[in-house]
Amino acid sequence: MKLSVFTVLFSEKTFEEMLDYVSSKGIEAIEVGTGGFPGDAHCKVDELLESEEKQKEYLEAVHQRGVTISALSCHGNPLHPQKHIAQRDDELFNKTVLLASKLGVPVVNTFSGCPGDHEDAKHPNWPVAPWLQNFKKY
């Protein structure tokens, strides 16, 4: 078993600063946010998918510090009642799965999503967590 941390806790740090910090604390693995609600401070999915060289450099930075990537995390709402939001989050999920495959990361964490309560709904209808932007209106 390895001690791991969700890197979005250190979103104010650059990728390299975050890696240096977590490895200095004895952390052996990281879960990296790829977008959605936690953001993508340490993993720009589109940039990494465009270049095998960038993927190699990314993994090298992680491994040089004796750390592994335990998971990529993509927490959006692919069931959102507003189709443009649902489509955006579904596309991010698919890109995250593809990137995980290319990086050799065995796990992708995600949210299941939350739909509206009728065909013309504008907002998800089941506020399960007050910190999600969708539920600030309630």
Describe this structure in words.
This protein has 138 residues and is of the alpha/beta class. The protein has a single domain, classed as Divalent-metal-dependent TIM barrel enzymes (TIM Barrel, Alpha-Beta Barrel). 36% of the residues lie in helices and 16% in strands. The chain is built from four helices and four strands; from the N terminus they run E-H-E-H-H-E-H-E. It has helices at 15-24, 45-50, 52-64, 83-103, and strands at residues 4-6, 29-36, 68-75, 108-110. Strands 1-2-3-4 form a four-stranded parallel beta sheet. The longest helix has 21 residues, at 83-103.
SSE layout and pairing:
Blueprint: E1 4-6, H1 15-24, E2 29-36, H2 45-50, H3 52-64, E3 68-75, H4 83-103, E4 108-110
Parallel strand pairs: 1-2, 2-3, 3-4
Q: How confident is the prediction overall: mean pLDDT?
A: 90
Low-confidence stretches: none
Structural class: alpha/beta
The name CATH uses for the topology is: TIM Barrel
**How many H/I helices?**
4
What kind of assembly state do the chains in view correspond to? single chain
Q: What is the approximate shape?
A: elongated
**How is the main sheet built?**
4 strands, parallel
- How many separate domains make up the residues? 1
CATH architecture: Alpha-Beta Barrel
Which radius of gyration do the C-alpha atoms yield? Answer: 16 Å
The CA-CA distance between the termini, in Å, is 41 Å
Q: Helix and strand string, N-terminal first?
A: EHEHHEHE
Strand content: 15-25%
Number of strand segments: 4
Regarding CATH, which class? Alpha Beta
Strand order of the largest sheet: 1-2-3-4
Helix content class: 25-40%
CATH superfamily: Divalent-metal-dependent TIM barrel enzymes
